Amino acid sequence: MFASWMSLVFDATRLGLETARLGYEVQTVMTLRLLKLARGGKAAEREARRMVSEKGFAAAETAMILATGGSAKKAVRRVRSRVGNNRRRLSR
Fold first, then answer.
1. Domain range spanning residue 71?
2. Confidence of residue 60 (pLDDT cuts 50, 70, 90)
3. What's the structural domain count of the chain?
4. Contacts 24+ apart (CB under 8 A), 18-23
5. Percentage of residues in the chain with pLDDT exceeding 90?
C-alpha cells in the first residue's frame, strides 16, 4: 500500500515538473513571437495568423486527448512537443 501511495506522489510530482517546464517554454515562445511581431511586415502577419489558428487546434487536440481517456501527462507532453517546434522555428 505504501509503495502504491509513493508511486502516486512521484507521478504527481513528475506531472507538476513537466507542467512547470511547459510554462517556461511557453514564455520563451511568447517572447520570440512578440519580437517577430514587433519587426512587422509580411512575416509578422503570417505569424499572427499562425498563432491564432494554432491556439484553436491545440485546444481541440488537448480536449480530444483527455476526452478519449488520455492522461494529463500525455496532453502536457503533446503540447510541449508543439511548443518546442515553435521555439525551434522562431529561433532561426
1. 2-91
2. very high
3. 1
4. 18/73, 18/76, 18/77, 18/80, 19/76, 21/80, 22/76, 22/79, 22/80, 22/83
5. 86
